[in-house]
Amino acid sequence: MSLDLSRVRFDRAGRTIIDGVDATIPAGALTALIGPNGAGKSTLLHLIAAIERADAGELALDGRSLPDMRRRERARVVALSEQQAEVDAQLTVEASVLLGRTPHLGAFAAPGTADHLIVAQSLAAVGASEFASRPLDSLSGGERQRVTLARALAQQPTLLLADEPTNHLDLGAQFTALDLLAALARDGLTVVAALHDLSHAAAYADHVVVLEGGRVVAAGAPVDVLTAELVERVYGVRAQVLPHPVTGRPLIAVASAASAMPAVQHASLEASERA
Ligand SMILES: Nc1ncnc2c1ncn2[C@@H]1O[C@H](COP(=O)(O)OP(=O)(O)OP(=O)(O)O)[C@@H](O)[C@H]1O
């Protein structure tokens, strides 16, 4: 299901955080949402998931307004994977992932065998089966991250939003999570992942949307968007974009963050060199 954002605006505390976002997120593809800290990535995911309501604009999934959908119906089609502080830390991993089934259960209905099977499959998909019976608050950051993604998978959405899904994960687990998201997209799921690692975005995304200051400053195929010029302009970092030796996808090699340093820092460096 394709997602269309049109002139989306969101203000908070007197500031415009999302400032007229227009974007088309392709169906059955992995879209990377990238941009510097504070660009508005998490906020935009919250607006799509209707956790927050936009002050203006439209957010539509296959032509249907997401904010206007009934909550329960929306929860059957959209899942947001983010590390949530509010989930009861005493819950077991299994019970927490089972919460993902809630939108699919009838009123007052208990989860059935099929729901437990989906939970087990979701835990297996993220490599979290072995800690299924442990309380959430006994998990490491990376283990918790996997459980968070498993809960979103258990929701069996058609649109999966993942906020920094590789956060806290070790190198192998990062690629396992990205492989999983890419495989889900190939199977028809529309995936939007906020990512910080541009090489991850380049390696895995079919489409990239770059946010800066609450605005879309570039969007398109990774090879067209992730240029050295864009990296320097948006992140203030000098980089070389090389072809990955195996995949040929862009690989962002950072040569220097010098252009990101404030002038005062240069001055103090020079002073310390003279001393
Ligand atoms: N409750 C709030 N009150 C005021 N400003 C807020 C609030 N929540 C977020 N913001 C501001 O909105 C802007 C966008 O924040 P958001 O978390 O969406 O950015 P992000 O791109 O996800 O950043 P990061 O990469 O650091 O996670 C930031 O400037 C942030 O300070």
TrEMBL record:
Sample GO molecular function, one term: ATP hydrolysis activity
Keywords associated with the record: ATP-binding, Nucleotide-binding, Transport
Domain ABC transporter, first and last residues per copy: 3-238
Gene3D superfamilies linked: P-loop containing nucleotide triphosphate hydrolases
SUPFAM superfamilies, sorted: P-loop containing nucleoside triphosphate hydrolases
Record field: transmembrane: none
Annotated Pfam families: ABC_tran
The name this protein goes by in its record: ABC transporter ATP-binding protein
Biological source species: Agromyces protaetiae
